[in-house]
Design brief:
The complex is a heterodimer of chains A (266) and B (260). Chain A is mostly helical and 266 residues long. Chain A has one domain. Chain A is 78% helix and 0% strand. The radius of gyration of chain A is 19 Å and the shape is globular. The N and C termini of chain A lie far apart (44 Å). Chain B is an alpha/beta fold and 260 residues long. Chain B has a domain of 65 residues. Chain B is 33% helix and 24% strand. In chain B, helix 3 packs across helix 4. The relative contact order of chain B is 0.18. The chains are: A mainly alpha (266), B alpha/beta (260). At the A-B interface, helix 1, helix 4 and helix 12 of A face helix 3 of B.
């Protein structure tokens, strides 16, 4: 048991140190959501009217509405990016050292996912700090209540990334994942606009949004910040996390990619 | 010392049961293929504790595939691998007595030497206090103590290799796999590293399986496993193999094996 904890602590520490050393990555992770919050939100707030919907008790500005969605966005990008590297680094690099540690593979993958979530929490903390300094009136006091939910959603999105990267060989780079996974998931969710708003223009798009696991991740985070539990969203997140992680652990196989490459060359 | 098979085509070793039970590494009838191409066929190797064995083969002979199977990255199509008497089928814990230096760079360039080593200790369940002592001892032995806080990115190729070797021995493995550890190094660095590696069975008390395609790294008295087209073609001391084949040196013997 001690060995398991030491390994988890070691992996998390390493990921955090790497993130801190890579200033460009830190800034890039911050710029993306801030751009949405400051630039896009300014344009959208005039075009989008928001009614009072749970968990909000009163009218809120568009900037306030999209903060949970942007937190989800940080986790989505971070989860996909780190999961992709976990798959593509298995033939070389530090993943080989990790995978040859005397611990079960599923546990090592879980450690990596948790480490990636910790990095995303650092990004989220910085994002919220900057948002507060920018005068966005968000439910910052709910951050501690939202913390366990954000850990869960982080593992959910990381597991999804790991599963996709393990199964879909065609997604060779991050650009492919951006176009075919991240953007559809992000735009077809409740991150930027409530689902009822989407339903006004397209019923089937709204249904797609409802089936999108990312929508439930965002809603779980949104409610948690206001001290509430969205039971359906939370259940979907838990079930998806388990399903994605178990399937990803099964699908993650360094030999498969290597074999495929060698077979193609043979 | 395990028994060397006579120079020949069958690569199964005629080790006794006792030898294989106490072997640091015992591989039996191992097979692995990439699609229809057989990368390893019926490979059997037995390495007793503390022995150094040179795995000689040209590029593509199957050395790296063999290492990937031994360290559990790949699963064999057939055959078994035992490390210190424990089969890899028992789970990842069987990898605990195994140290590996991969051919490709596996250090984290953005972290310091010390941080890289501490990370490895955590993966192997070595507690912080013990880890600190082992890291210090190991860096001292490899003359890297003054570089402990340097980022790996700032080190030259030779120093990086030394750090990889230091890392692979931190958990005091009973078998150390070295996959072409001297490739890409300049001559003085290579010479220095070779003498360090050669002393490992004595200083660390571990067996060493050292993959190379550089014949000049092999001494006459070394046990050599010659791998070609996924099969162990020869197993014995370099001197004996040359004598049996009637060749002047290993280079000629290798040519003979590759172009029968």
């Amino acid at each position: 048991m001690k060995h398991y904890l030491l390994a988890m602590a070691g992996i998390v520490k390493r990921e955090l140190m790497r993130f801190i050393h890579q200033r460009e990555r830190f800034i890039a992770a911050l710029v993306r959501p801030m751009l949405w919050l400051v630039v896009f939100a300014a344009g959208f707030r005039a075009a989008l009217g928001l009614s009072i919907i749970p968990p909000y008790q009163t009218y809120i500005s568009y900037e306030v509405y999209i903060v949970p969605g942007l937190i989800g966005m940080i986790q989505l990008f971070n989860g996909m990016q780190s999961s992709l590297s976990m798959v593509y680094d298995q033939e070389m690099g530090s993943m080989r050292v990790l995978l040859t540690a005397p611990l079960p593979r599923w546990y090592l993958l879980l450690c990596k996912l948790v480490a990636s979530v910790m990095v995303s929490l650092l990004q989220i903390a910085t994002f919220l700090l900057v948002a507060r300094l920018a005068g966005i009136d968000f439910a910052y006091q709910g951050v501690l209540q939202a913390l366990p939910v954000m850990i869960l959603t982080g593992i959910q999105l990381g597991s999804l990334g790991l599963l996709i990267a393990s199964l879909v060989k065609q997604l060779e780079n991050f650009a492919g994942v951006m176009n075919f996974v991240i953007f559809p998931m992000f735009f077809l969710s409740s991150a930027l606009y409530p689902i009822w708003k989407m339903r006004e223009s397209s019923d089937w798009l709204a249904t797609l949004c409802q089936w999108n696991p990312f929508t439930h991740a965002v809603e779980a985070i949104r409610f948690a910040f206001y001290g509430q539990i969205n039971v359906i969203a939370l259940l979907v997140v838990i079930i998806c996390t388990l399903a994605f992680f178990l399937t990803a652990s099964w699908a993650y196989n360094p030999a498969r990619r290597f074999r495929a490459g060698r077979t193609a060359n043979a | 010392m395990s028994v060397s098979q006579p120079t020949g085509t069958n690569n199964a070793l005629s080790s006794s049961t006792d030898d294989t039970e106490h072997a640091a590494l015992n591989i039996s009838k191992l097979c692995f293929s990439y699609g229809s191409r057989h990368a390893l066929e019926d490979v059997s190797i037995c390495i007793p504790p503390g022995e150094q064995v040179m795995l000689l083969g040209a590029n593509g002979a199957g050395k790296s595939t063999l290492f990937s199977l031994i360290c559990g990255l790949f699963a064999a199509d057939a055959g078994s691998i035992n490390i210190n008497g424990r089969t890899l089928l028992d789970g990842a814990a069987a990898l605990a007595p195994l140290g590996i230096v991969f051919q490709s760079q596996t250090l984290d360039l953005d972290l310091s030497v010390e941080q890289n080593l501490a990370y490895f200790c955590a993966l192997h369940g070595i507690e912080r206090k013990a880890a600190r002592l082992r890291i210090e001892h190991s860096l001292q032995r490899l003359d890297l103590l003054d570089r402990r806080r340097h980022k790996v990115r700032t080190l030259n190729g030779g120093h990086r290799r030394r750090v990889e070797i230091a890392r692979a021995t931190l958990h005091q493995p009973s078998i150390l796999l070295l996959d072409e550890p001297t490739v890409g190094l300049d001559i003085p660095t290579r010479t220095e590293l070779i003498s360090y590696i050669r002393a490992l069975p004595e200083t660390q008390g571990c067996a060493v399986l050292w993959a190379t395609h550089l014949i000049d790294e092999i001494h006459d008295e070394d046990r050599v496993l010659m791998l070609h087209q996924g099969r162990v073609q020869r197993d014995g001391s370099a001197r004996q193999l040359c004598r049996d084949a009637g060749t002047a040196n290993l280079s000629e013997l290798m040519h003979q094996v590759m172009h029968p």
